[in-house]
């Protein structure tokens, strides 16, 4: 719940029950991913159906690896757009991270794809005028492209606190990296100079079953109430 601190700024105070409620979108996305996961392979991106995590779409996103330590957001839920104050599809996921922590975040992204691994990150928003205290939690889950390479990922982010002035960026408080597959050992990511360049973007799309107009750059793929997930066909 939100309250007033002695300094007059908004502060975050959560009971365990409240924390569980607020983290429910992350749990739903991760449970959906586990339901698609095979014993010896992570799911294909083409297996992801937004209806399987309908109550978490506001917080969910899909991304594609574009460099050894960098991934671009392909599809973003409205909550990420609200945090940045703009459409974030097409931007690097690291845009949400404070510059001082981007190298550390990039290493976590490299581990995500190299393992493959599940990455869970606890975050705290940078402060400033009009930017009240805020915490966030992120989960990153590896996916395979339709070619079988591990260059896609499903993720979710939830924040706790009033957004205030945007954009909001986060510092990393804690990073947890665990194997994505049963019985798998974590394989450290190669150094950036040893890793192959990112593959060229293929035409796959996280799109509705009905085709969008040919001249449409953005189209909703699903809608629940006022929440909408946006496709970036860049």
Please characterize this protein's 3D structure.
The protein is of the alpha+beta class and 234 residues long. It has one domain (20-185): Beta-Lactamase (2-Layer Sandwich). 17% of the residues lie in helices and 29% in strands. It is built from 4 helices and 10 strands. The protein has an 8-stranded antiparallel beta sheet. Strands 1-2 form a two-stranded antiparallel ribbon. It starts with a strand and ends with a strand. The model is unreliable at 1-6 and 191-234 (pLDDT under 50). Pfam families: PAS_5. This is PAS domain family protein.
Task: Please outline what is shown here.
InterPro entries: DUF1457. It comes from Mameliella alba. The chain is α+β, with helices and mostly antiparallel strands.
Total strand segments: 10
Strand order in space, largest sheet: 8-5-6-7-3-4-10-9
Backbone shape? globular
The CATH topology annotation reads as Beta-Lactamase
What do the pLDDT scores average to?
A: 80
Radius of gyration: 18 Å
Largest sheet data: 8 strands, antiparallel
Q: Which class in CATH terms?
A: Alpha Beta
Low-confidence stretches: 1-6, 191-234
H-E order: EEHHEEHHEEEEEE
């Amino acid at each position: 719940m939100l309250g007033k601190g002695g300094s007059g700024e908004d502060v975050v105070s959560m009971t365990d029950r409240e924390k569980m409620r607020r983290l429910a979108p992350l749990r739903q996305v991760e449970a959906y991913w586990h339901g698609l996961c095979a014993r010896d392979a992570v799911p294909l991106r083409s297996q992801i159906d937004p209806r399987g995590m309908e109550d978490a779409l506001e917080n969910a996103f899909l991304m594609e690896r574009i460099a050894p330590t960098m991934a671009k957001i392909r599809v973003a839920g409205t909550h990420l757009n609200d945090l940045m104050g703009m459409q974030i599809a097409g931007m690097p996921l690291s845009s949400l991270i404070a510059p001082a922590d981007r190298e550390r975040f990039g290493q976590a992204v490299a581990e995500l794809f190299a393992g493959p691994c599940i990455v869970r990150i606890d975050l705290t928003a940078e402060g400033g005028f009009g930017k009240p205290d805020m915490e966030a939690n992120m989960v990153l889950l590896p996916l395979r492209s339709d070619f079988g390479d591990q260059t896609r990922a499903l993720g979710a982010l939830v924040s706790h606190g009033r957004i205030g002035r945007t954009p909001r960026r986060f510092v990393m408080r804690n990073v947890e990296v665990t194997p994505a597959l049963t019985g798998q050992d974590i394989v450290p990511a190669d150094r950036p100079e040893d890793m192959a360049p990112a593959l060229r973007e293929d035409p796959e799309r996280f799109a509705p079953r009905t085709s969008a107009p040919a001249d449409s750059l953005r189209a909703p793929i699903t809608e629940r109430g006022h929440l909408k997930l946006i496709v970036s066909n860049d």
